[in-house]
Amino acid sequence: MVEQSRHDDILVLTIHNPPVNAFSPGVPEGLKAGLSAAAADDRIAAVVLIGGGRTFVAGADIKTFGLPREQAPDLRGTVQQLDAFPKPTVAALHGTALGGGLELALACSYRVAVPDARLGLPEVKLGVLPGAGGTQRLPRVVGAQKALDMMLSGAPIQATEAKELGLVDDLIEGGLLEGALAFARRVAAVRPLPRISERAVDGGSPEVFAAAREAIKKTHRGQLSPSLIIDLAEMAVNRPFEEGWQAEAQKFMEARESPQSRGLRHLFFTERESAKIPGLGKDTPLLDIRRVGVIGAGTMGGGIAMNFLNAGLPVTIVETTEEALDRGLGVIRRNYESSAKKGRLSADDVERRMALLTPSLDMGDLKDADLIIEAVFEDMGVKKDIFTRLDALAKDGAILATNTSTLDVNEIAAVTSRPEQVIGLHFFSPANVMKLLEIVRAENTSDTVLATCMALAKKIGKVGVVVGVCDGFVGNRMVHRYGEEARRLVDEGASPADVDAAMNALGLPMGPFQMTDMAGLDIGYAIRVHRARQRGEPEPDGWLDRIVKTGRKGQKTGGGIYDYDETRRPRPNADMQALIEAYRAEKGITPRSISADEITRRLTGTLINEGARILDEGIAQRAGDIDVIYIYGYGFPAYRGGPMHYAGEQGLQKVVDALKQYGHTPAPLLERLAREGKTFADFDRERANSSQK
Ligand code: 3HC
């Protein structure tokens, strides 16, 4: 895994562990052997460390995080050996030097890099902290403030910036190895060797740490590792290196063993897994998408169009009236201008993006589009009409997509003569912001169309997850049950604020009723009315339906379940509380006090239960896909790994017991896995194994 090659008096150690040269078993052994050989050989004046293939070391091997400490690859030992090494060591960086990779480089005497290399300590994203000296060395190089910024955001910096900060000693414009060798020869005789561990930290005043502690209350609410990172960075300022180094080892293990880190690591792998579609080969041909058409310039259509404009793809947006078109275009422009005001875009970017947008009142203008996305009102008749017309006018091979969130994509596809070209692309509001894209594979959707949409999702910065056709697909089908249970909790005696507070405490930015107020109460009401009519049931008349009938529709009318001030903070409304109480009295319900624990168990339980049904029916391919959907589409805290992973952390039997206790029938799959002492991750493995056979 580590190749030794001599270049005159320089020993080059090349790390080969594709695809990203993670610090896996074998790598430390190879590096240590190379370093020992170089130390013992008088003919060697210096050592260069370099990555083979596309990158330097992208970090510790996350797959080994579950191993006992003694069996984990010895990154800290390698770092110590480098720090104490008697001859100059040069880390030659390209691709990404992340986490343990950057820590190796920091323990070398020097670092050189190609200008587009990226350097960072992203451990916080995995619920851990730099555990091989990063918390102690980075502040000693870039100062306390910048080190905190890098370690708390986890975002990498470009080598050019690293050079300005002194983190990189030289930028190599030509071949990296040749440049690194030349550099190593220049410094071969330097003594004493520069050691970062011997430096002091710049700018580590108590205020810097106090401000960081204040900031993470908002940016990393409820998370463990950010505060450990701040504590350790403060030690780098105030304590001897050795003390900070030892404390780091202990805190790293504490974070690594936490459920939060397990949740974030699960997300890391499951997100990558969800990009893979069983049965779809890597060589599936892709369609070339150069022009996009969007039908409907409302909130959804406008947001969808922006995704493609941002990626440099021209979009034709079609509306039925001049007024609606002008309004839609105005909103898009205002969104861009507000990003420009915040410094996220330049004025030129705004104009460049707007110039890619062609407004039209004629659907015929979509005849050259490679992908057409319909984003009109949620009505099957209207959608069928649009798809009939699209079938007649769209060019051969164009992808015809619907943004429906509930309707049957098979039924929509059936009105066309090319159902293999039809797919659902369910964006989440605000569509230009939310990362999730449910990609709805209908009965006849071709592999090429599916693979093209997955690739396109990546291109426009979305996390695409393939789902099957059913009412609400994955996300909305689950959230429907969750909403029902939340209303039941209020029926029984909880206040909406109690319910929301419990979910906020679990880590969701919004509880179910805050979400309802934001989405608009009338939307959910229309769906409930529609369903009741379909099933021949009486019109819905719960307490929430009664609130809608008072004319309060949520944030957009200044209030719904809650009142809102200009900061959009929800405040309970006495009249709505009275309405709920009157409702209970009328139904003969004696309200009882309901604990936050019960609220959390019931709400997560209903999500998990519906998730299990969805999984069993094959609507979702994997439990991990459901987790990705819930984290990116519904704000489930990433550090809890999504509802299905969270179920495993609780123990599936506990979920089953809670469901039964509160009058629900557990899904057969959930009951089976609980009985067998398994988790949904076990189920994913079972399904993957059986599909490979
Ligand atoms: N450990 C194990 N596997 C890793 C890995 C890691 N650190 N980083 C990436 N991989 C795997 C991925 O799971 C993926 O596997 P797959 O092909 O089987 O799905 C494969 O490598 C390629 O990864 P990506 O699909 O993400 O490739 P990209 O080119 O899009 O991105 C990357 C490359 C920027 C390096 C990205 O993979 C990444 O961000 N990796 C994680 C980096 C990280 O967090 N490092 C810190 C680890 S913690 C640490 O170092 C602790 C230490 O301080 C003690």
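^ 3-hydroxybutanoyl-coenzyme A complex. The two ends are 32 Å apart (CA to CA). Residues 19-20, 22, 58-63, 75, 96, 98-100, 103, 122-123, 126, 128, 130-132, 134, 269, 272 surround 3-hydroxybutanoyl-coenzyme A (CB under 6 Å).
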